[in-house]
TrEMBL record:
It comes from Dongia rigui. InterPro entries: ABM_dom (IPR007138), AI-2_Isomerase_LsrG (IPR050744), Dimeric_a/b-barrel (IPR011008). Keywords: Monooxygenase, Oxidoreductase. Residues 6-94 form the ABM domain. Coiled coil: none annotated. It holds the Pfam family ABM. Its EC number is 1.-.-.-. One of its GO terms (molecular function) is monooxygenase activity. This is Quinol monooxygenase.
């Protein structure tokens, strides 16, 4: 059976005072990730209501390709550069209801 596409909703909260630095690093991350195999969509959204809150809306061809992304150099570099700027991350894995 073929794997279903996977949607990830990742909520990220910056430490107070680190919002702009984190957002700059997240923008760099997006530029690298959209080129990864299996990436259908990788969008960064900024909250209009909560300072320092961003949301990634991701679509991947499969769970396995998302797992490859989680181990990819772009994400590792982001964690090394900006991981200390993140106060909280909440990940939701979702599949289309079809």
């Amino acid at each position: 059976m073929a794997q279903k596409p996977l949607t990830i909703i990742a909520q990220v909260q910056a430490h107070p005072g680190k919002e702009n630095e984190l957002l700059a690093a997240q923008r760099e991350l997006v530029a690298g990730v959209v080129k990864e195999p299996g990436c259908i969509r990788y969008e960064l959204h900024v909250s209009n209501e909560k300072k320092g809150r961003t949301i990634f809306v991701e679509s991947w061809e499969s769970f396995d390709l998302w797992q490859d992304h989680m181990k990819a150099p772009a994400l590792a570099a982001f964690r090394a550069k900006a991981g200390h700027l993140v106060a909280e991350t909440i990940l939701d894995q979702m599949t289309p209801d079809r």
